Amino acid sequence: MLAEWTNTIVQGVLLGGLYALFATGLSLVFGIMRMVNIAHGDFIVLAAYVALVVGYALGLGPFAALVVVVPAMALLGYVLQRGVINRTLGSDMLAPLQLTFGLSILLQNGLLEIFSADSKRLHAGTIEVASVPLAKGVAVGAYPLTIFLVAVCVLGSLQLFFTRTSLGRAFRATSDDETIAALMGVEGRHIYGLAMALALAVAAVAGVMIAVRTSFAPSDGPARLLYAFEAVIIGGMGSLWGTLAGGIVLGVAQSVGSELDTGWGILAGHLAFLGILVFRPTGLFPKTRDR
Amino acid sequence: MSLLSTSRLDAFYGDFQALFSLDFEIDEGETVAIIGANGAGKSTFLRTLTGLIRSNPNTIVFKGDPIGGLAPSKVVRLGLAMVPEGRRLFPSLSVEDNLKMGAYCARRGDWTLRRVYDLFPVLQERRATPSTLLSGGQQQMVAIGRALMSNPDLLLCDEISLGLAPIIIKDIYKSLAGIIKTGTSVVMVEQDVQRALEISSRVYCFLEGRVSLTGRPENLDEVSVSKAYFGI
Known about the structure:
- By secondary structure, chain A is mainly alpha-helical.
- Helices cover 73% and strands 3% of the residues of chain A.
- The N and C termini of chain A lie far apart (50 Å).
């Protein structure tokens, strides 16, 4: 009994790593540009399709394909931000929202047109079914554990980048006060481009990771976005480790819910999210400041 | 040749014109004060020089080159830095990170973290503190240090005494005098006329977006200053 529940909670924690990967890019973009990227989930799905094509064309496995997919998505992010999204940023919150909503529709239908509605999967071989025993009666899947460790590494690297590098400081300064950052020589539009590049690079990792774990289809983006949103809100805006905590809360709630009744998993996740919204509307570790 | 000059400089907030055909100049090594009542256009003038407010290219000439209309991020690279009104530190950055942001544009020069800490020793003690937890005077020191870290040829100071206790203001001005002595040219906007006259070699008085009086402090009498200041 105890082992069973421990198992459930550990699975939930590991699932949280995946949600944190979903959420990081969303949180980053909001933190720096105060803009909500409605198409974020669709970019996660897009990355999976790019990995599918790259794997097919170059004969690479999903993890090797990351070498191509991550830079490609980052480049797409930079170009998209500089070429299109920057033009909508300003005092009006609605314009970038509408734009990314449009992008979301575009991506979903574009993918549907090219790849059809059939769901696809990426195959990574034996790691998918391997398991690691942690204690007597408690074993975790090697792959969920891998995802979790990848999430921790990604968040850790971002943390180092933001605190230890000159460019990272410029990101934080721009998030605080773009005007004053400009007076220091920071070119805001370029920083925005880099922020979107970084966001989509993490989205690419997330997209490939989940595509090995479960199947994906062109219309899956909004569901990914919803989990990303919930993880960000639970964790608190702008805090990297808060995002991981948010993902874990969501993951554990879903996994405990499913354990109680197979149909309750997703519902339990949403309830945990609503609970946090009621009792701590700014999330567990809020960092981003109002401006 | 002057270090910076403006000729017939206009500036607008939308349809509202804030500066009217303004002529101004400062030579290398000079300290020029700008005084004037609220809304006279002093801060607007500084913001226009830094590129935060748009202007026509040839209306601002810095070290011989027209800089009007350049982006702020480009202007600072040419050697023009501003201590903004109200300090405007980056709240989520520590004292030291704020100072390091000043060096982001990577201009060569004498100002380093070491020298800023020598100038304001208290900042070294509080280097890891979030900038929001400092006292007003210490925040002002960070704001000045941050601007100096870009190794400017011309430093613009916008109301650095605003909201500070008189004893703190005295300290800050002492440090400023030290900075001026190293040869940095300074344009300072100041509400406190007396203080402005003491530290500067030349004064401009602004009134409703125009220059109403200019001259050396020793040649200005109280009556003409007060007339230029209030416009009556």
